[in-house]
Amino acid sequence: MPTSLKRFRVSLQHQGNDLEIEVIDSHLNLIASPINSSSVQIICWGNVWNGFW
User: What is the pTM of this model?
Assistant: First the structure.
């Protein structure tokens, strides 16, 4: 990410789930809506997280 961009947020829908991806400085946050009705699987650098987010 460009050094001049300190914060970035995008909302999206994936397989019926509402998600937000937020980058603040060097931190990445993935935020799932509490009303999502299905599980979301996240894979990042080979690590897998399953569950309701």
Answer: 0.65
Residues whose CB falls within 8 Å of the CB of residue 45, separated by 6 or more in sequence, listed in order: none
Residues in CB range of 51: below 8 A, 6 or more apart? 39, 40
pLDDT tens profile 2-53? 778 789 999 999 888 899 999 988 888 888 888 888 878 888 888 887 764 4
Report the C-alpha gap between 35 and 4 in whole angstroms.
34
Q: Are 33 and 18 in contact (CB under 8 A)?
A: yes
Pairing of strands 17-24, 47-49: unpaired
